[in-house]
Design brief:
With 116 residues, the protein is an all-alpha fold. It has 3 helices and no strands.
C-alpha cells in the first residue's frame, strides 16, 4: 500500500484508545489459538493422554484471557461511539488478560514438556 492510499484514514499510534483497541486483538487472538492447540492435543487419539485436572486450568485461563480481550475491545468501541471517556477498568482488564494468557500458555508448555 502506498502512503497516499485513501483507505488508510486513521493512525492508531496517535490515538491511545485505538492503540489499546488494537492491542486487545492480540491476547484475544493468541489465547484462542493456544486454546485450540490445547484442545486439539489433549483430545488426540494417537497422542499422549493429558489428565482432565491438568487441562481444565489451561482452558479456564485461556478462556478468561479471550473473554477479557473481547469485552475490553467492546467497551472501547461502545465508549467511543457514545462519546464517553474510556473506562478506568481497561487497565486492569489488560493486565489480567495478559496474565491469564501467560498462565494458560505456561501451564500448557509445562504439562506438554513433562509428557514428552
Amino acid at each position: 500500500m502506498s502512503d497516499d492510499d485513501p483507505l488508510v484514514t486513521h493512525d492508531s499510534a496517535a490515538d491511545p484508545e485505538a492503540m489499546l483497541y488494537d492491542f486487545f486483538k492480540y491476547p484475544g487472538t493468541l489465547s484462542l489459538l493456544v486454546l485450540a492447540a490445547v484442545l486439539t492435543l489433549s483430545q488426540s487419539p494417537t497422542g499422549p493422554v493429558i489428565a482432565t485436572t491438568k487441562v481444565l486450568p489451561m482452558i479456564g485461563l485461556l478462556s478468561l484471557s479471550a473473554a477479557l480481550a473481547i469485552i475490553s475491545a467492546h467497551d472501547i468501541a461502545r465508549d467511543r461511539a457514545a462519546g464517553k471517556p474510556p473506562s478506568r477498568w481497561l487497565k486492569y482488564y489488560r493486565i489480567l488478560a495478559m496474565a491469564a494468557l501467560g498462565g494458560g500458555t505456561g501451564t500448557f508448555l509445562g504439562v506438554w514438556t513433562d509428557i514428552l
